[in-house]
């Protein structure tokens, strides 16, 4: 059977559409556009604050950003798990389970987000204990944290909504939502900081307003899409399905594994930030600027990883091994091409990009000292991003958890060995961490293929 057909659909159901380059881009293209705006918001935050002329403001935004990246990326299972489960339900052509996927995810999102608000004082104390910054930087970042935490329920709900639409291969709707979120964030940041004279707190206020309004828009689009495709979002019998023990156990197992995996991933970023901060506030600020190269790479390459999640999940739901291979091949070819392009752009324009982010001369000079590591980001991370998408789609989350733990051990070991080389050693260890992620997941890929064939 060719990769463009499926024998795994329900009896009498129409066959799934072939996976083509055009369909890959129909999913990946909107995601690349929308994801690329995510680091652009961080870039805008840094640029708006960076041109106030104080390195402490840049360092505070870098510190606040890594804190919320840590918190939200740990709960990224709401996006990834929802994508996988919705895609597999689509592959089985099961409209009831498609509705249940978003219902369960939203329930988890609002519950976890509310808990983060309730526990904000001990949570804030814990995260700031982990980051040894200067007194003024920590105070500014604390103001940022106290405001941003109120957006947690909205942001986690946004993860669930985006994941659901991606799993249903409606990346166009995901694009609209992300563009609204990020452009609203950008406009509000400029308004509060440039227009009204706020500093770090203005960036935080702009972000939470954008998060809550994007969530409201997303829920409206979910209701409309469900009504047009699977029936009303809350149909008769949905409550029993929502609380079905087997389905809940599957969701919790998938989400638990992704949670642990994401915790290790964000621990790597936390460690990078902590060790940079331990060297000096200047190194912390420079590393914060360079991490924007990584974020830009990650959010662009994730377009193909998200496409992999949708198509691999669909293939897993239909039990079609050939379709899986075809999806992996097509999405990976484009991911590698994009990685090469990004490395070339960073090599040619990296110095200009640093100047765009800040006009503080000492931060510019320090960031340029370590620019070569940023140029390597696309080349060493493309395999890990792509394999993450493949393993999420197949819900092989136990492998993701275990291989991430192993890669993190490689990272800490490399950092320990390379400490005498200072910040260069820290960046080298981070690069080796990402190489290990790709190698270890690749070693588990044959088992993933066998699991898809067995699910037929």
Mean pLDDT over all positions? 83
Question: Uncertain spans, ≥5 residues at pLDDT below 50?
Answer: 1-12
The value of Rg in angstroms is: 21 Å
H/E series, N to C?
A: HHHHHHHHHHHHHHHHH
Give a quick account of the main beta sheet: strands, pairing sense, barrel closure: none
Shape: globular
What is the share of helical residues?
over 70%
**Structural class determined from secondary elements:** mainly alpha
How many DSSP-defined strands? Answer: 0
- State the helix count: 17
Tell me the span between the first and last alpha carbons: 13 Å
What is the assembly state of the chains in this entry? single chain
Beta-strand content estimate:
under 5%
